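Subject line: Sequence and fold of a protein, written as structure tokens
Body of memo: The sequence and its backbone structure tokens, given next.
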Amino acid sequence: MFTQEIEKFIRTKSYPKFSPKAVFFDMDGVLFDSMKHHATAWVKALHNKNLPFTEYEAYMNEGRTGASTIDEIFIKEHGRTATEEEKNDIYQLKSSLFEACGKTEQIPFVYDLLKKVKAEGLQIFVVTGSGQRTLLHSLEENFPGIFSKDKMVTAFDVKYGKPHPEPYLIALKKSGVQPWEAIVIENAPLGVESAHAAGLFTIGVNTGPLKPSALINSGASMVFNDMKELHANWDNIVSSK
């Protein structure tokens, strides 16, 4: 069913085959329905500092580290990057506003997909721009037995972060698989761009307000309307190899 997209990926990258051995999951908007809270927190924190920012821009910038997001805004508004003090001040405020939004729920059907992937014997990684200290605890609480500390790439592991390919290149190195042996699941244009630049087969899941074209134009090989649709088609994707 998805043979055409996979053959195009192999041909474009000049890879010998497509043989999934690992799946790299983004976190916010893929595992957790948290982007609406992140968007609200970013808008409030930046408006508090008289910096214009919209929720749509938050979705378009999703995947960047907090420091990179703040620098992008400062360059646009002030023609310079933010100082470390400014970054820390804004990010601490954003974090407190995010926590005040309350507990975030799982993306529907993602746990079912994770269990399916695990049962198939594929490695499972989380690749996120988040720097939450309680990240592993949150993942274990919501998805028991799925994730482990050695199979994570976070803001603490990278210098550049998404949309640079670095996060997914680190995941490749940690997993020990070849580029044609990995699948990435992303919901954000910058995350898709990062995975695409790393040479990986990237599936976009549009869990936010963006148009599917935003993910396709960033390099997604295929786009699904939600996680339920991806879960329903998963077997067809991995069997198309």
